[in-house]
Specification:
It is a single chain. This protein is of the alpha+beta class. The protein has 17 helices and 24 strands. The protein has a seven-stranded mixed sheet with strand order 3-5-1-12-9-10-11. It has a five-stranded mixed sheet with strand order 7-15-14-13-8, with helices on both faces. Helix 8 packs parallel to helix 16, helix 11 runs parallel beside helix 12 and helix 14 packs across helix 16.
Length: about 700
């Protein structure tokens, strides 16, 4: 048929609240996740974690395990397939006898059933030579050093002006230290992989935020061409950063499948996840602010101490937001890190920004109290004309608009600034505010747009939907670029056999994928416009990539901004904190789907609520492992933990981003929430807690 394009605006323009395309599949159980693929003759695997915090394996006795019914193999460092050197050392599993931390995998049991595999893993006897270990983070640790770069490639240290002199001369100063404990990614779907080999080709169904990267790493580890590896991540039940790159289970599943000659399925037990899939590293953050009597900041220092493992370096970039947020002619931002005998930290939703903004926004609130200035007003007084760290103009910056709109919607005024004056029976009430920021990140992606002879369209690229509604939003981007109804556009994502694309992380997925989709669809529409008569039976296909666009450095500083408001109640008898209201207002470019966007904002804010009030774990100094390693002990928020939560946004036009004018929204919701809640608790009680989470045991001594 001859292609038909509407002459007016597309029937489903960007921004419309379209329902998720895969919604019915998920609620009916038809959407299949990584562990739900069961090829014929599939075996099951169960890992054996190390029970010492540092040392080496001296012997592994597998006889009892292999004698159990249904057990077909036990892999150890002595018989596991040999891997090529890995860029990520956490993937070099079962390759040597070294144990760098408790929970490091030292064996893998494989059996005909999950129950048999678990029993076999428990029957394996491992003997160790144990060494002294150190898992304690402290601000004065003798092995602290300043890394060249922090996560994301940011310089580890940045100095502007003369901070020491400006701080000493400032009439009003804040000098406070804030701590955030280790935090854990606990997605609803655990890390899982199903792997099988066929004539030298490896196929894996993996719970991953980006199967292109998993494919590349597996090909390198097993010395294969990338064309001989297919990784499918069609439906993923959350990741929050912990599935951003391959994790050990996918390598173990592929090794076991090669060793046994059978498909092998491995879903990590939740209690093992904190030790092997990454965590948000703990931070000790000293923030110093010097300001004039008018509240304008003259000196700002943010110094961060954190840990990494002895396996690889990962530095939580918590001081980076202080380089963006406020007027600060004299600034010092420093990261220091110490390698300890701990599991390797990695990405967790808004790495750097989430813990860093808790400290910075708490310190700004403390400055507002010292000056007796409204916290919203103080933030407005310190709006920079350009990005402080680079002096680049902002592509768009509407933080003041978010603060004003948030204050209006929240009913911030009239607010009595005095703490501990609002009371209902034994409950003390207070309100707090915090700003939020997150960088605009984009990476090269490739997309294919195809026009069928029957008038339909098909978009193919290896994007990943981790529960954000990527399929739906990409269909909207394609429909808008093609100028056709959204229902005529089909979407294929989630396989490394598709055109390669950016992983779903860093709030960069939709912007990166959408740019490639828009470019391919624009090219396809131009080709169809020039075509006369019916399409050929195989249709037309246009492929486009954004390598050139992604490689160009923008002359603008590009960030999302937001403001979070919280109302908290504190029980003076129990010390329990409950949040009555959470409100977020964001400036995040053009919102492409209002339904899925609101879900993302609210999800991030809920995660920030958990960070503020309940989430956290401790490293046991004697045993060297995380004490809170499951959802019985590591608490996460439920619906009942916040009575009212709302998310709104400004209509922000920014021509310096991508063809859609969009910014990432998956992470900014978490960034300001913990500080807003902590500031509300101070306003309710007059007690300034600087150590998360704000649990009753910390409050009660002050009440």
């Amino acid at each position: 048929m001859t292609p038909q394009f509407p002459s007016g605006p597309p029937p489903y323009p960007l921004g419309e609240p379209l329902v998720r395309r895969e919604g019915r599949l998920k609620v009916t159980g038809a959407a299949r996740y990584a562990a739900e693929h069961t090829p014929p003759d599939c075996a099951y695997a169960w890992p054996v974690p190390a029970t010492v915090a540092r040392g080496r394996v001296t012997a592994v006795d597998t006889a009892r395990a292999l004698a159990l019914p249904g057990v077909c193999a036990v892999l150890t460092h002595e018989n596991a397939p040999r891997l090529a050197a890995a860029d990520d050392p956490t993937l070099s599993v079962l390759q040597e006898d070294r144990v760098p931390h408790r929970g490091w995998y030292v064996a893998l049991a494989v059996a005909d059933s999950l129950e048999a595999a678990r029993a076999a893993a428990e029957a394996v006897r491992v003997t160790y030579e144990s060494d002294a270990h150190d898992v304690r983070l402290s601000a004065g640790h003798p092995r602290l050093y300043e890394p060249e770069t922090a996560n994301g490639g940011y310089p580890g240290t940045r100095e502007r002006g003369d901070f020491d002199a400006a701080f000493a001369a400032a009439p009003v100063t804040v000098d406070a230290t804030y701590t955030v404990p280790p935090l854990h990614n606990h997605p609803m779907e655990p890390h899982a992989s199903t792997a099988h080999w066929n004539d030298g080709r490896l196929t894996v169904h993996d719970s991953s935020q980006g199967s292109t990267k998993v494919c590349e790493d597996l090909a390198a580890l097993f010395k294969l061409d990338k064309s001989d590896v297919t990784v499918v991540s069609e439906h993923v039940g959350g990741g929050f950063g912990s599935k951003g790159t391959p994790r050990p289970q996918v390598v173990l599943a592929a090794m076991a499948a090669r060793h046994t000659g059978r498909p092998v399925k491995l879903a990590l037990p939740r209690r093992q996840m904190p030790a092997v899939v990454g965590h948000r590293a703990p931070t000790v953050q000293r923030v110093r602010i010097g300001a004039g009597e008018d509240g304008v900041i003259t000196a700002l220092a943010h110094e961060v101490v954190t840990h990494t493992s002895t396996v690889k370096e990962f530095v939580e970039q918590a001081a980076v937001p202080a380089r963006v947020m406020y007027t600060s002619p004299h600034s010092r931002t420093v990261h220091r890190v110490v390698p300890l005998d701990v599991p390797s930290p990695s990405w967790m939703r808004a790495p750097g920004e989430a813990p860093g903004m808790f400290a910075l926004e708490s310190a700004v609130d403390e400055l507002a109290v010292l000056l007796d200035v409204d916290p919203v007003e103080l933030r407005m007084r310190n709006e920079p004309d350009t990005e402080p760290d680079s002096d680049r103009a902002f592509s768009s910056r509407h933080l003041v608009g978010c603060l004003r709109e948030g204050a209006r919607r929240f009913g911030w005024q009239p607010r009595d600034p005095r703490p501990a004056v609002r009371q209902e029976g034994r409950l003390l009430l207070g309100t707090g505010v915090a700003s939020a920021t997150y960088p605009v990140l984009q990476a090269a992606s490739e997309a294919e747009a195809h026009a069928d002879a029957d008038g339909g369209f098909r978009i193919r690229l290896n994007a990943t939907d981790i529960g954000t509604g990527a399929r739906t939003v990409l269909a909207q981007v394609a429909a808008a670029a093609l100028g056709v109804p959204e229902g005529r556009v089909g979407i294929e994502i989630g396989s490394s056999d598709l055109p390669p694309a950016m992983l779903a992380g860093g709030s960069a997925g939709t912007g990166s994928w959408g740019w490639a989709v828009h470019k391919a669809c624009t090219g396809l529409r131009a080709r169809l416009r020039d075509h006369v008569g019916p399409l050929p039976s195989d249709g037309f296909t246009v492929t486009a990539d954004t390598r050139q666009e992604a490689a160009e450095r923008s002359p603008y500083a590009r960030h999302s901004f937001g403001a979070t408001f919280a109302e908290a109640q504190v029980d003076t008898v129990t010390g329990e904190v409950r949040v009555r209201r959470l409100l977020g207002v964001f400036a995040a470019g053009r919102i492409l789907n209002s339904r899925t966007a609101r879900s993302q904002f609210i999800g991030g804010m809920t995660m920030g609520l958990g960070m503020a009030l309940m989430e956290g774990s401790g490293l046991d100094p004697a045993f060297g492992d995380f004490a809170e390693c499951d959802l019985a002990s590591y608490h996460v928020p439920a619906c009942a933990d916040v009575r009212r939560i709302g998310a709104h946004w400004l209509d922000e036009e920014d021509p310096h981003l991508n063809p859609m004018g969009s910014k990432g929204i998956g992470e900014i919701g978490i960034v300001g929430t913990a500080a807003a809640v902590a500031n509300a608790v101070w306003h309710a009680t007059g007690v300034r807690l600087r150590d998360l989470p704000l649990t009753p045991d910390k409050l009660l001594p002050h009440l």
